[in-house]
Design brief:
The protein contains two helices and eight strands, in the order αββββαββββ. Strands 1, 2, 3, 4, 5, 6, 7 and 8 form an eight-stranded antiparallel β-sheet that branches. 25% of the residues lie in helices and 44% in strands. The chain has two domains: 32 residues; 110 residues, Hcp1-like (Pnp Oxidase, Chain A, Roll). The longest helix has 27 residues.
Length: 146
Amino acid sequence: MGWPKKLQISLVAAGVLTLAISANRLIAGLGDQRVTPHIVIDGIDFGAFDKTLGIPTDSYDQVSNVTFERNFVTEPSLYMWARQAVTEHGKLRTVSIIYKNSEGVEVNKLLLKGSHPISWTVESSDPSQGGYHEKVDVSVQSFLFD
């Protein structure tokens, strides 16, 4: 004798529902871990950036130029750093890219050694809120995963 057909169907449905709920929790848990790059130069945290182009992915990559781009309202402007740095002829900096998860915890760090700005722009992106869009290109001599 086996279990009644209705009970078998109910148990299978409950099992499928449990698996679906567990999978959604796992996916939601993984999806919440967005990693955002933050730029720090000479101890000044310039905040989070939306785009970073030219970033090496492993120690064999060659780096020459890196681009940082974002929309911002209140963080210190990387554009202003670039303008100031150009006046200091020949002074190279180490740019720290600190990757933080959605809770603000540091998960990785990349040092761009021998960095110097080569171009920069800033423009108003949302006049009603006082927001700006900035883009800074930096020449880099070497990098180190820290």
